[in-house]
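Lab meeting, item 3. Inverse folding demo.
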């Protein structure tokens, strides 16, 4: 009855047709067997599925999802996100997602717009925004999502290493697509054997457009042969790995 309600309001079809439509939508969102359940008998994730089914009843061209996962546990959140992706692909339906959780954007969205005080301050394909966040608010969101630990913790370690090894360099590498699957770093060390490498922090995530990963490393040499470090950095650039040398003032 809940799923049928929009059809009643819009006076679409007779009772039998409305019931048939509701049954199709209940199957679509994976709630078979719950047709006669009351809200109190459903979990939070199941209630969200009912809401999605109800929103689809009138065959909209755009589905607006406003914080659909904010009150759900991680497992249920993933299930609802997988459902939205499935609906997007099966129905060819545009879904506008409003959220402050960047992992939601990363997992299911193609395009993102970042709002600050009601104004769009940055927008673009998800992979581009994750790779090159321009605004401070976007960088905070992305750092929270892409760091395995605290972004502040990483910066503290980086600062300490810069002070204790002034002749070395700390580099942030960004990999995307098939780069994340290649032994680029090990090949770099093979070609420049006098270079020592320490891993500070790294992670990898999947987006709708492929993998994106980041790796913070420290490069040092025992004999002050800076050409080895320069050669290693040049090699990374020839492999089209995005390379950012972290300076003390950063």
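The presenter then showed the designed sequence:
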């Amino acid at each position: 009855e809940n799923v049928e309600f929009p059809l009643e309001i819009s006076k679409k079809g007779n009772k039998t047709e409305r019931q048939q439509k509701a049954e199709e939508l209940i199957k679509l969102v994976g709630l078979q067997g719950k047709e006669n359940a009351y809200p109190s008998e459903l979990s939070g994730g199941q209630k969200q599925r009912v809401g999605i089914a109800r929103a689809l009843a009138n065959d909209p061209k755009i589905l607006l999802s406003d914080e659909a996962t904010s009150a759900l546990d991680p497992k249920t959140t993933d299930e609802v996100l997988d459902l939205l992706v499935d609906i997007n692909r099966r129905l060819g339906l545009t879904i506008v997602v409003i959220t402050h959780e960047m992992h939601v954007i990363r997992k299911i969205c193609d395009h993102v717009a970042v709002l600050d005080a009601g104004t769009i301050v940055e927008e673009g394909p998800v992979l581009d925004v994750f790779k090159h966040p321009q605004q401070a608010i976007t960088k905070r969101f992305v750092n929270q999502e892409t760091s395995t630990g605290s972004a502040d913790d990483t910066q503290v370690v980086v600062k300490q290493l810069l002070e204790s090894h002034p002749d070395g360099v700390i580099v942030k590498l960004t990999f995307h697509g098939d780069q994340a699957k290649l032994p680029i770093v090990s090949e770099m060390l093979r070609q420049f054997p006098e270079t020592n490498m320490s891993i500070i922090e790294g992670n990898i995530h999947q987006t709708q457009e492929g993998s994106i990963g980041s790796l913070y490393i420290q490069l040092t040499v025992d004999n002050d042969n800076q050409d080895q470090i320069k050669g290693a950095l040049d090699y990374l650039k020839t492999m089209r790995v995005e390379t950012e040398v972290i300076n003390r003032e950063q």
